[in-house]
Amino acid sequence: MKRLIAIAAAGCVLLTAGCGQRAPSADEGGGAGGPSSFAERAVPAPAPGEPTAGPDGAALPAPGGPAPLSADGRTSGTQPNAAAPVPTPAPAPAQSVPAPEPAKPNAKAEKPRQRGPAKPEPKAPAVSVQKSQSSAAKKLSLSELRAKYPEAFKVSGASKERNVALTFDDGPDDRFTPQVLDVLKAHGVKATFFLLGKRAEEHPDIVRRIVREGHAIGNHSYRHPQFPKLTVDQFAQEIEQTEEVLNRLTGYRPKLLRPPYGAIDEEQLQWAKSRGYMIVNWNVDSLDWKNLGEQQVSGNILGHAKAGSIVLQHSAGGDKQDLSGTVKALPGIIAKLREQGYGLVTVPELLHLSKSK
Ligand SMILES: [Zn+2]
Fold this sequence. Notes:
Residues 162-345 form the NodB homology domain. Residues 23-137 are annotated as: Disordered. By secondary structure, the protein is an alpha/beta fold. The protein contains 17 helices and 9 strands. The chain folds into 2 domains: 16-98 and 141-357, TIM Barrel (Alpha-Beta Barrel); 109-139, no CATH class. The chain has helices at 2-22, 26-30, 34-42, 53-59, 71-78, 91-96, 103-118, 126-139, 142-148, 177-186, 197-202, 204-212, 232-250, 266-274, 294-302, 324-339, 347-351; strands at residues 153-154, 163-171, 192-195, 216-219, 256-257, 278-280, 284-285, 310-314, 343-345.
């Protein structure tokens, strides 16, 4: 008993930290005050070890409801999953993501047992097969998923072509997204915006402007939940609801899908793949969600960009999140990359894909 109590107490401490951050955020974000929460999260999140799944997986709030938009920031923290994160060595992080889910290991052992007895023969119907696959899927890290589904999950383009794709998540908003668009327009750069369905509904004119000015758009979920914490049905609803909004506003259904925090499990990936989506994360993280200044944002990008890179930045965040560093750094980043001979293209161009499904 004492042990349990002690453990519970420890858990509370950890949860408290996480909850505190979230509390303000999520759901509210969904409503009107939501944004503020974002900021909080991003800020508090521990910078150094973040990449470790710890933050993303564990801390985030429940699915659906809460909209941890700032999450992306975390996403950035999560980057490692995506590919070769800026800060920490890549390999470890990816694994960390799956790690958070304590039940997995047990699940593996348990499922076999339960099913073994219940079902007479190994040659089970399709249903059983799917279940076993889904359970196994949860075990795979993002890097393992990319390796298993290279045709459906990308973090970069071909290294032979000297192109780089700038991407901006969590918009649209009427605060930073217009500023990002102004800079891109002034420099003749086409980028890719991964939009939240809820925010798209709130700022339809900004969505139309993004498309009108030649940028590509992608589906970034409706409320920015952690996909691995959702059932496939909940996951599908997030995607389809957003797709409907974007189709209504732009006239097409985006092929690109970027999971919040870059996190997705195998069953969800299979669903997305079967519906014609291409999962696109990143391999260069600006970490701009941490309210970094111009030079830091610029350094994080220019220090890691290479041929085929997909760069993660944000065009919207919480009320307390200051993305002015991204806006200010953008002209210099564009100039430097071009000076180095890189072409700045949209993700569909980088990956030679159609923008629509
Ligand atoms: Zn995001």
